Amino acid sequence: MAKARPPRTIDSYTIKGTNKVIRVGDCVLMRPSDSSKPPYVAKVEKIETDSRGHVRVKVRWYYRPEESIGGRRQFHGAKEVFLSDHYDLQSADTIEGKCTVHSFKSYTKLDAVGNEDFFCRFEYNSNTGAFNPDRVAVYCKCEMPYNPDDLMVQCEGCSDWFHPHCIDITPEETKRLEHFFCQSCSPEDQKKLNSFHNPTRQPETKVDTKRRRR
C-alpha cells in the first residue's frame, strides 16, 4: 500500500468565490462553528495542501475581549483583539475574508474604521489569562487605559486627557470647548497659556501623550 505523501507548503491561497489571495502573514476572518457569533480573527502562519488538493492553514488566533478569561472591560475598544499563543490547523474553506489588525498607534490615526479593521495592543496567554505588556498608560481621573472609541479632552496645563463624564460635562459641551484646564491646573497656568493660544483653536480628541504606567 502506497504511503500518503506529506503535505506540501504553498505560497498562497485564493478564497473560494472571490479573487482575494491569502499569503503567510495575512490576517483573516474565519467562519465560527456557531453562526450566531462573529467571525474569528486569525493570523496565517503556514499554508499547505495534501495529495488530494485539500488546503489547510496554520493560524494563530486573535481573541476578542469577551473570549478572554477576564472578559471585556471598560477600556477595551469595540474592534480590539489580543494576539494569543493558541495555534490551530484549519481547513482553508473556513476562511471568509481578509482583515487588517493594526497596531494601537496606527488604529488611532485612521480617518475611518471599516468592518475589516481591528487593532491589537496586547499579547494574551490563553492558559493563564496573562497579558503582555501587563502595564499600559492610564489617563483621566478614573485612571483607565485609553479606549479609542471614547471621546476625550486634553488639559492644556498638564496635557492629561479626560472623559467628559469624569469632569461633569457632556460630550456636546466638550466639542464646543475652545480651551480646557483640569482642576489640578492653577488659574495662573490658565492665564499664562491663554495668552499664547488663538481663541478659535479647537481641541483635539485623539490621544497622543502618555502620563504614567501602572
Give me some keywords for this one.
214 residues, mainly beta, 9-stranded mixed sheet, elongated
Explain what the structure shows.
This protein has helices at residues 104-108, 171-176, 187-194, and strands spanning 8-9, 12-14, 21-23, 27-30, 40-49, 55-63, 82-91, 95-103, 117-120, 123-124, 131-132, 137-138, 153-154, 161-162, 212-213. The protein is mainly beta and 214 residues long. Strands 1, 4, 5, 6, 7, 8, 9, 10 and 11 form a 9-stranded mixed beta sheet that branches. Strands 2-3 form a two-stranded antiparallel ribbon. It has a two-stranded antiparallel ribbon with strand order 12-15. The termini are far apart.
Task: Describe the structure in brief.
The protein has 214 residues and is mainly β. Helix content is 9%, strand content 31%. The longest helix has 8 residues, at 187-194.
Q: Number of helix segments?
A: 3
Strand content: 25-35%
Note the gap between the termini. 63 Å
SSE ordering = EEEEEEEEHEEEEEEHHE
Radius of gyration: 23 Å
Largest sheet: 9 strands, mixed
Mean pLDDT: 86
Structural class, by secondary structure, is: mainly beta
Helix content: under 10%
Low-confidence stretches: 196-214
Q: What is the general shape?
A: elongated
How many runs of DSSP E, i.e. beta strands? 15
